[in-house]
Specification:
The protein contains 10 helices and 5 strands, in the order αβαβααβααβααβαα. By secondary structure, it is an alpha/beta fold. The chain has one domain: Flavodoxin domain (Rossmann fold). A 5-stranded parallel β-sheet has the order 2-1-3-4-5. It starts with 8 loop residues before the first helix and ends with a helix. The protein binds flavin mononucleotide.
Length: 216
């Protein structure tokens, strides 16, 4: 990886902090009344260099490509890893998450590909979803007819289209029925999975400052 022409690599590795930023975009229609997503988000937010954003609070009236697209694209470009966290609603994502895809990813990959989409490619990407039903409902031929992976396929296709390495999704079942202890355990597991993911992918890479600068 090209870091800079005039300095030896070891110097730059010392000069550039190896701490990288993980951005969790949380799409819950009403986080104040959430148990599961609120608990997961609170555990994740305690990890170093992890930021959680409540997108519903930022965009209570929806998100718009021309008004909000640039701000959200920059947010992505300034991050080293992206998590989309949300409750499953009607076998799909909450409407604001779909609106975010339409506004932000359309801008980055169809309108400003050279300066934004191309720069975003390669950013590791994870989905963290909560579901009310039991795991057994989400099997082929089960009560919900499809596996969770099948229902998440549109997001996986999006990641593929945008060149974002896809991580195994974190899925919490029976999310609205868990005891306080079970919820604590799930939040602990979520934080542990995030930590492993962060440590295992780009965490030890030195970022290319020229490329990031060009994206802004
Ligand atoms: C409008 C709506 C639709 C839902 N659809 C589904 C669904 O398709 N499958 C499912 O397993 N749970 C469904 N649920 C349950 C939620 O996924 C569950 O309540 C949520 O993940 C719990 O997380 P929270 O405590 O953060 O709100 C739905 C809930 C609502 C309000």
């Amino acid at each position: 990886m090209v870091v800079g022409a005039s300095f030896p690599c070891s110097y730059l590795k010392e000069a550039i902090p190896l701490m990288t930023k993980t951005l969790i975009l949380l799409f819950h229609p009403d986080l104040a009344n959430s148990k599961a997503n609120a608990a997961l988000a609170a555990a994740a937010a305690k990890l170093p260099s992890v930021e959680v954003l409540d997108m519903q609070v930022i965009y209570p009236d929806g998100i718009d490509l021309s008004k909000d697209g640039e701000r959200e694209a920059l947010r992505l470009l300034e991050s080293d890893r992206i998590v989309l966290q949300f409750p499953i609603q009607w076998y799909s994502t909450p409407p604001l998450l779909k609106a975010w895809q339409d506004a932000v990813l359309t801008r980055m990959f169809y309108i400003a590909y050279e300066s934004e989409g191309r720069m975003f490619e390669g950013t590791p990407f994870m989905v963290a979803a909560t579901a009310g039903n039991i795991p057994d409902a989400y099997r082929s031929g089960g009560r919900n007819m499809f596996t969770m992976n099948a229902l998440l396929a549109p997001l996986q296709a999006t990641a593929h289209r945008c060149g974002l390495p896809w991580a195994e999704p974190f899925v919490l079942y029976q999310a609205d029925k868990l005891s306080a202890e079970a919820l604590d355990a799930a939040a602990f597991e979520y934080a542990a999975i995030l930590k492993r993911w962060i440590a295992g992918s780009k965490a030890l890479w030195v970022k290319e400052p020229e490329l990031r600068g060009a994206a802004q």
